[in-house]
Specification:
With 298 residues, this protein is mostly beta strands. The protein has two helices and 14 strands; from the N terminus they run ββαβββββββββαβββ. It has helices spanning 51-80, 235-241; strands at residues 7-13, 17-19, 103-106, 108-110, 114-121, 126-133, 139-147, 163-172, 178-190, 193-206, 218-221, 249-255, 263-266, 280-282. The strands form three sheets. A six-stranded mixed β-barrel has the order 5-6-11-7-10-9. Strand 5 and strand 6 form a beta hairpin. The longest helix has 30 residues, at 51-80. It is globular and about 50 Å long.
């Protein structure tokens, strides 16, 4: 793809292929390296081989990882459930065909590090600002009693569709930012696209880049469901499973140098933002035990 020098365009496709090169989120989930240690059954080369001990060790390893294999099969089944490719080529929002199943959201650029935009939540809708992050999968919305949080805050008492819960939620991101609260559900809209009963973290405490005085209030994770600490479907995947999008993808146009024009296009690409053709690359889940978690490409 040929790109203007002042911008980066990224398109992400829910299918075996991903268009262009995904931009890592600012809040990458932490990856803890696992030290590999060779464990032998024999204390020394002179110790005789014990078949029963070896079998016991094999059984121990199999039991340790059987839950991971089961979760992998379950996640794969959930990811494929009700997900249908709506278009071979991504829907172009510049097309003369008017569709309600895609939408563009203008983004603000903070030092080429964070791109954030508008999100509305509740009934009647209340607007707040959200960092769109491809490296996580939870939706975080700060509420009226949030301590140290950015604004605007979501007043839960003014929404007739707000559903509270007592289930606690807390998360820490790779840059050290943290958020805590409880899980809740309400109507959420981005780019004119709406999901009812969207599960999110009703945040009551934030730190780091979320803190008061920051450019944005909350965060929307655009990664795969396997990353969600809430164990709930992310906003984009709910749209996909409801067969709500013209194309099962989202794309970013990221202007540089604090210039205007950055954009998130959900269910579409915007040909006015790039030249050339869209290139496709297979997704890669080899580093996450075969479970697709990030928009990693081969």
């Amino acid at each position: 793809m040929i790109l203007p020098t002042s911008a980066v365009t990224t398109a992400l496709l829910l299918a075996p292929l991903v268009a262009s090169n995904p931009t890592p989120g600012r809040h990458q989930a932490q990856v803890v390296p696992i030290r590999q240690q060779r464990r032998g059954l024999n204390a020394s080369p002179d110790t005789p081989f014990d078949a029963s001990t070896a079998q016991a060790e094999r059984n121990k390893v199999a039991n340790r990882y059987k839950d991971l294999a089961s979760k992998k099969r379950s996640l794969k089944a959930d990811a494929n459930k009700n997900v249908k490719a709506r278009a071979v080529e991504p829907f172009d929002i510049q097309s003369l065909k008017k569709r309600q199943s895609s939408g563009a959201d203008s983004l603000d650029d903070q030092s080429d590090a964070v791109y954030y935009g508008a999100l509305s939540v509740g009934t009647p809708a209340q607007q707040t600002t959200i960092d769109f992050d491809t490296g996580s999968a939870d939706l975080l919305i700060p509420t009226e009693n949030c301590s140290g949080c950015g604004s605007p805050l979501f007043n839960t008492g003014q929404s007739s569709t707000f559903q509270a819960s007592s289930q606690p939620f807390e998360i820490q991101y790779g840059d050290g930012s943290t958020a805590a609260g409880t899980l809740a559900a309400d109507t959420v809209t981005v780019s004119g696209l709406t999901v009812q009963n969207q599960v999110f973290a009703a945040v009551t405490q934030e730190s780091g880049s979320f803190s008061s005085g920051g450019a944005f209030a909350g965060l929307m994770g655009m990664g795969f469901p396997a990353l969600a600490k809430s164990q709930s479907n992310p906003f984009f995947f709910n749209l996909v499973q409801a067969n709500s999008l013209s194309s099962n993808l989202f794309s970013f146009y990221l202007a540089r140098g604090d210039n205007t024009g950055s954009e998130l296009c959900i269910g579409c690409v915007n040909s006015a933002k790039y030249t050339g053709n869209v290139n496709y690359y297979p997704l890669d889940a080899s580093e996450t035990q075969g479970v697709q978690a990030y928009w990693s490409i081969m």
